[in-house]
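Supplementary Methods, section 5.1.

A reviewer requested that the exact input to the structure prediction be made available. We therefore reproduce it here, unchanged from the version used in the analyses.
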Amino acid sequence: MRRCYLPKIDTLNYAGYTPAMTLRLCVLGLVVSLSTSLAYAQCDKEAVYIKGRVIAPGASFESYHEVLQLDELRLVAYGYTGSTGEFEIPAQPPGKYYVVVRIDGFKDYRERIDISGCEAVYDLFVYMTHEEEPVPQVILDFTGEVNEVVDVSELKRQFPAKAVSEFRRARAERLKAEPDAARKRLEKLLREFPDFYEARNELGSVYLEAKRFREAEGEYNKARDLRPSSAAPWVSLGSLYVQEAEAAADSDQGKGDVLLLQGDIGVILDDARNVLARAVKIKPDAAFAYYLLGIAEVRERNTAKGEEHLKKSLEIESKLRWARLALANLYIKQGRLKDALAQFDAYLTEYKKMANTPEVQQVRAKVAEQLAKANP
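The structure derived from this sequence is encoded token-by-token as follows.
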């Protein structure tokens, strides 16, 4: 039974204060306490969205700037600044996340926030400060839709605290665009703890960003063996094979340094399709996996399947803008100029001030001109 404690007061010296009032105050305290408990019980939110404004003195907002929401290094959601720096990120499950903003000429902004409260909206003002030498961009892992949370407390139950600390330091180094330091730390860590799944995935991504395809493949395969029920290594492998095939195709055209025969490219794309099919079987709403499947099928001239997969990726995630441009390019190759214009128009409506917006506008104008000539 909960007891009610009130300060001892001399009723003779405190005019009007009686034992009856003490009882009423006690009851009132219990009611307030019960109401507060009920409020907390009812305040659990399924999702919370972040909104606010980026303040960067002297920065131009003529082009949109991305505001990223990450679970450690995995991208889970993103938004774009408006003409005055305001932004909004789509709702995500409550939890602890990082918010990252990068603007040329300013220090990277990275803040850990907790959106586990009772409010449906988390307000955040981002203050950017100038830097003399901009930090190089980090290639982000866009397979973040797999949404695997790296629970540090769980890691500490599996591995010594020093090992977990080394893993977190490697992640921080990768985020700060220090891939060599991150690689060396992860390689050393895995020699001692070869079953460290999260470190395997991380090292695979470091290798992939350096275009060390075989080393990346090895790490992702080991991660897959450690956790076969996870879609993350499968999506990562699919991304690796698609990137490798694209690099080989560029080399064939004199643009890259990866030399392979055309038949080898077909084998790589077969591998991509196989692992991505496994990924969507594990996680049917993996939009990025469908996007990669679409790219692989189009590259192999299976245009009908490619179109189907690209549309599926947009059906799951309408803001997957790369899929929209891929569809537009496919339609241009097929001579479906009206369909291409529809994709470009949808892109330009949603992304008016992206860095590539002028280029998209130029291509759109050329397609419109061709369509006008074909239908005078």
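Residues 1-41, 133-149, 254-263 have pLDDT under 50 and may be disordered. These observations are discussed further in the main text.
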